[in-house]
């Protein structure tokens, strides 16, 4: 589902509701808590017109400033075709958005405190220093502070659903200059709000009513105390409700991201690595979620390496190598070496289009490598049209000669089936020869500083290659050596062939045809 787009409606609704809450609080404060702080002359047409104009100017300025600041966010349709500098600006403003709206509202309430507690009393001729301080405290500190706090936490909560639109990869920490609001500071701010504001109201109420009691008679004093008792109970009820509400809000602001992180971790525990933990805050929880995503990306890359590596070796060999259980420094191992070579390869290449040669070779190698892997063999390399494979290394296996011969038999079967499909498509048949020999080889990682490959060195490797070459002379597709035959224990039907002399050896070699 697509991420919701940021809208000016959300911005306006939040500003209207927040500032309406602040206006009601200011009215309550100056009506019941400190009614003498903003004492003005009688209300007439001049006062009404001044208030309407001042309120309209402040409200319009706040809306215009807010929409101007959030304009790039509202117009965001994705990074396509957008300059890098603009993308960085938009992403930075996306993280600053709740702070910006709260700051604009705070500026408005500061100006409101000056307008109604300094400018208007000066015009009306009632300016008094003690009333200025008390008026600005009630307007800017109490009403404005509550308004800014409400706007910040409300916008931040709603804005979390929109942040992934600007940060699809969750890389919030990569934005320079982004504000950081730690969990500790968040909880401390909410604690101060639910404790300092009610205590401040009670303190001002007690002070103002004490001054009124000094000048009141017995009857008026009783009314003041009754009214004070009612207001105290009201403040207590509202304070408890606000404390519970803000506590739940704060708990959810911490618990919701943690729940998302927990769900993502559960998916990983079930082996699902294609998930993603939303990063919606710049605090410690957001840092943990971002670190989890980086870890998940690393797991995906490791799994890709394993999957890719598994195309070249058997899963057992792959897991042993990745676990560091196989030494590549070089060791003597008894192994069975297999060479397979295509017949009449050069004439076929010369008569075939290059792209068909590559395609057909890849199909052939896929079939042959599948047969080798199925019998725990390791394909060491593809050399032109030739395959070199080993059984019993790098992981030792007592039955590696039999595994190699069975792999050769499956290679014969797969080639027969593949040729049937090629003939049905009007393509020529492929023929190959396979030579197998068992002996002690030197195995290890061989190559340069930039690239290594697992390779075998020794006379058994050369002899296996020579036996593969003898398949042309004997018109056979699979030949094995005497050393390999002795380790089969009669498990495979064989036909003995005349002893032959091969290049590089003084004595004759006994070979057998796999029938």
Describe this structure in words.
With 515 residues, this protein is of the alpha+beta class. The protein has 2 domains: 1-179, no CATH class; 328-514, Nucleotide cyclase, GGDEF domain (Alpha-Beta Plaits, 2-Layer Sandwich). It contains 14 helices and 8 strands. It has helices at 8-33, 45-74, 84-124, 129-159, 163-166, 183-215, 218-269, 284-309, 315-322, 345-350, 354-374, 400-424, 459-474, 482-486, and strands at 331-342, 377-383, 386-391, 432-447, 452-457, 478-481, 494-496, 511-514. Helix 7 runs parallel beside helix 8 (284-309). The longest helix is centred in the middle third of the chain and has 52 residues, at 218-269. The radius of gyration is 42 Å and the shape is rod-shaped.
Give short descriptive properties of this protein.
515 residues, alpha+beta, Alpha-Beta Plaits, 8-stranded mixed beta sheet, 14 helices, 8 strands
In short:
This protein has 515 residues and is an alpha+beta fold. The protein folds into 2 domains: 1-179, no CATH class; 328-514, 2-Layer Sandwich (Alpha-Beta Plaits). The protein has helices spanning 8-33, 45-74, 84-124, 129-159, 163-166, 183-215, 218-269, 284-309, 315-322, 345-350, 354-374, 400-424, 459-474, 482-486; strands spanning 331-342, 377-383, 386-391, 432-447, 452-457, 478-481, 494-496, 511-514.
